[in-house]
Amino acid sequence: MITMPFTLKPAKAEEFVNREELLGEMLSELSDSDSTVGYALYGRRRVGKTSVLKEIQRKLEESHGCVVVYFSVWGLIEYSVEEFCRKLSLEILEAYRKELGLKFRARELMEMPLSLLGKILEETELRVVYGEFEFLLSRKTPDDSGLLLEHCFGLSEKLAKATGRKCVLLLDEFPSVIDLKIENKKVGEGILKKIRTIFEDWEKTTLCISGSVRSTMDLTVLSAGSPFYRQLVAKEVKPLGIEHVRKLLRQNLKIPDESVEELYSFSAGIPFYVHFLGRMLERKSEKTPEVVRAMEKEFLAEEGNLLFREEFNSLGAGEKAIVMEIALGRNSPKEISASLGARVSNVNTFLNYLINKGYVARKEKGVYSLEDPVFGRWVRVILVGGENWGE
Ligand SMILES: Nc1ncnc2c1ncn2[C@@H]1O[C@H](COP(=O)(O)OP(=O)(O)OP(=O)(O)O)[C@@H](O)[C@H]1O
Ligand SMILES: [Mg+2]
Prior knowledge:
Layout: H1 20-30, E1 38-42, H2 49-62, E2 67-72, H3 81-100, H4 106-110, H5 114-122, H6 130-138, H7 145-163, E3 167-172, E4 181-182, E5 185-186, H8 190-200, E6 205-211, H9 214-222, E7 232-236, H10 242-250, H11 257-267, H12 271-282, H13 289-313, H14 317-327, H15 333-340, H16 344-356, E8 360-364, E9 367-370, H17 373-384
Parallel strand pairs: 1-6, 1-7, 2-3, 3-6
Antiparallel strand pairs: 4-5, 8-9
The structure holds adenosine-5'-triphosphate (ATP) and magnesium ion (MG).
Adenosine-5'-triphosphate binds near residues 47, 49 and 212.
């Protein structure tokens, strides 16, 4: 029985492998106090996007040039625009607190009566953001979400100007802001344009975003018509190559080359799996490829169910059928439609849904594959079953 939690923390510092080129480029741009060029990181699930953001944060903070705020949209609970603005404002303020020598925590400030707050802010450089505070604290109507966003983001720009320290906002899973709600209704894509417009006027704040679902990243930055297309430099976070898989594994393990190769081929270089299986392997006395293969099977049966079952169940019936077909090795719409006895046009429709949801990639014209080969294995071995392991 595996007892470790299946969500692993993002890699930091000494554990971190690869990404030198990406980090180098981002760091030199982001640490330039006269640049507002930001980045949009995209990449499949579990490939290491959050880890890149956290590593950027660590390195930028080390050099003390700017103030860095990391914020994940997926960390919200109510998923309202109001909650987003309130929590992000708190984080921005907290990040500048040390800079300002403020002895109260941001949270404490937010809970103070306005009159007392006014007195405290008066004595610090924070007085420049009193207006933002007042607005955030005293709002009663929910229909002024545009203003709320302006005040929230205005906070970083004003604090950056007041302290002379550029603000770098790292917003993880950013495209999910379109799912934020105002009075229980989703705001939709309008919020992207709104934030873009606010961002246009910034001089001392830089935005870096990341997201995994291809369709929403398209909507946000990747396609020519999307709001942030010209403002953010898009960068794909790719799986690790075998040399980095080796390095990652050998940080904690003595492991023979053939076992590294086995793990590389199983994980396709997606660091989450490398990490997880590496941790499982720590407890085994032998680290032969046979032991690794047995462990992979154990991983799929136990962790795979936790990781993938829910995701799979969230798909529609047509999508499920197609995922199973591809997992079983049928890669073209023709083969799939023959196997399912469905029309090619229907198969194509579902393939497009799956591409937009980030499950399927088009390798070349008429050839499709699953984005995550471990998910594919799980579908083939655990869900469909009957297939010989290791085939
Ligand atoms: N460069 C790296 N070096 C070592 N380990 C890494 C690296 N990048 C990611 N990992 C490991 O992989 C796992 C997943 O990383 P992370 O959470 O950053 O991915 P993600 O792309 O943000 O995933 P999600 O799609 O779930 O948000 C973590 O356990 C992390 O420790
Ligand atoms: Mg992440």
